[in-house]
Amino acid sequence: MNLGAQKSQNYKVQKMNFIMRVLRFFNVKEMKPVIQYNENETLDLLNEIRIAKNEWISSNVNFEYAEEMEMIDYYTYKIKACQTRYEYLIRKAKEKGIKVDLIEKTSVDQLNFGNFS
Predict the structure, then answer these.
(1) Confidence grade of residue 100 (pLDDT, cut at 50, 70, 90)
(2) Are 47 and 20 in contact (CB under 8 A)?
(3) How distant is the alpha carbon of residue 13 from its chain centre?
């Protein structure tokens, strides 16, 4: 173990000992972690989850209508990428302590695919 890591470990132990003495002094029995997050960050994350879900649904729909082999391959990879992004965002929300209930089920009619005329 190098000297810097050992000093860092000693500092952490000293810090924890100090915190424990202070808690005993104030007779604190249990220390619960305080989760703090910005409301805007939460809303942004929930919006990103909604967008990722819509992209995933859109990719699935486009895959169903793909006729050329190259487009089938493209949408296969895009579906997997969208799924991975969606799962990542859900995991991030859980890590921040945000309860993510099932985000409203979005039907294909509600998606904005742009103007195809």
Answers:
(1) low
(2) no
(3) 32
